[in-house]
Amino acid sequence: MIQTLDDLRVLLGTLPGPDTVCRDIALAREPQLTKPRGALGRIEQLAAFLSAWQGRHPPAMQAPVAHVFAGNHGVAALGVSAFPPEVTLQMVANYRKGGAAINQLCRAFGVRLGVTEIDLDHPTKPFNQEPAMDEAEVVAALNIGLGMDLAGADCLCLGEMGIANTTAAAAIALALYGGTAEDWTGPGSGVSGSALDTKIKVVAEGAARHAKAGDGLEILRRLGGRELAAIAGGIIAARLARVPVVLDGFIVCSAAACLKAVAADALDHCVLGHVSREPGHRRLVKALGLDPLLDIGMALGEATGAVTAVPLLKAACQCHMGMSTFAEAGVTDHD
Ligand SMILES: O=C(O)c1ccc[n+]([C@@H]2O[C@H](COP(=O)([O-])O)[C@@H](O)[C@H]2O)c1
Ligand SMILES: Cc1cc2nc[nH]c2cc1C
């Protein structure tokens, strides 16, 4: 638990690194397996990634978990979303009843789902007028993520639900990386026309007001939301618990970007599940130097793009340990 953003700054300066022994064991095994070098593409690299960040060899993917954090945003009242803010709470109820896309994907791929809504009755402040959160609010939301129980989890897929949070994500990206509000602002869950113009204006105003005010954590406080802060906390909790993270779409990546702005290595234990259809996500992924596992036109959020990549992580573990070596199978290796 942290008391202040400075506590988190200290934590970000002392994050544990990868287990290079386990990573090297995986890297040494991979070329012995009965396939031409590199022929399983990213699936091969994932085995070493998981070994390094789980701190174990063989890597495991028996118990993947996903967690969706929900929050409400003051800027929703400005008409920046196609949907009204009550949809955040309604979708949380849908997750609990098992009726959402994320419930089906978790069932399909054997992922345990958790959901935490954070103070939905108290939206953040409209960030084009004042900071979205005060320090106590952002610290409380960060602590929800930092306090996640990750015992036994083999990976953590992080997701969010929050009407208007693509406006927050765009403002964060503009504040961190520059460019224009148009570069980062897209349809989200479906705005176009004059509502999209309003959204662009709100993003521009928010970044103009807050971009120079401080570091990535200050940007998170001023432009983010409670679910974004909880996701940032969850990323750090996973690092400390040796649980690799699967990132989801535009909003999750904007929260992650706030951490990377403070500590360049903060996302080294994260893999990007997918690149979303939201145009700002592709731009943000490039700025973060991430390489998505999937690029299949999803743009839902709620951890769906992360969970859809879990079968690739499972495939990596299965192939890495289940395949025979050239020597075991009596297959002639190349010279
Ligand atoms: O993950 C993405 O890239 C993504 C792209 C567009 C929309 N969303 C989801 O849609 C909601 C935000 O859309 P909006 O238009 O209300 O800002 C929020 O609940 C997100 O989970 C998510
Ligand atoms: C219906 C709906 C479902 C969602 N799931 C994640 N974000 C969402 C946004 C909307 C609007």
From TrEMBL:
Its EC number is 2.4.2.21. The gene is cobT. InterPro entries: Nict_dMeBzImd_PRibTrfase (IPR003200), Nict_dMeBzImd_PRibTrfase_bact (IPR017846), Nict_dMeBzImd_PRibTrfase_N (IPR023195), Nict_dMeBzImd_PRibTrfase_sf (IPR036087). Belongs to the CobT family. NCBIfam families: cobT_DBIPRT (TIGR03160), PRK00105.1 (NF000996). Pathway: Nucleoside biosynthesis; alpha-ribazole biosynthesis; alpha-ribazole from 5,6-dimethylbenzimidazole: step 1/2. It catalyses: 5,6-dimethylbenzimidazole + nicotinate beta-D-ribonucleotide = alpha-ribazole 5'-phosphate + nicotinate + H(+). This is Nicotinate-nucleotide--dimethylbenzimidazole phosphoribosyltransferase. GO terms for molecular function: nicotinate-nucleotide-dimethylbenzimidazole phosphoribosyltransferase activity. The keyword Acetylation does not apply. Keywords: Cobalamin biosynthesis, Glycosyltransferase, Transferase. Catalyzes the synthesis of alpha-ribazole-5'-phosphate from nicotinate mononucleotide (NAMN) and 5,6-dimethylbenzimidazole (DMB).
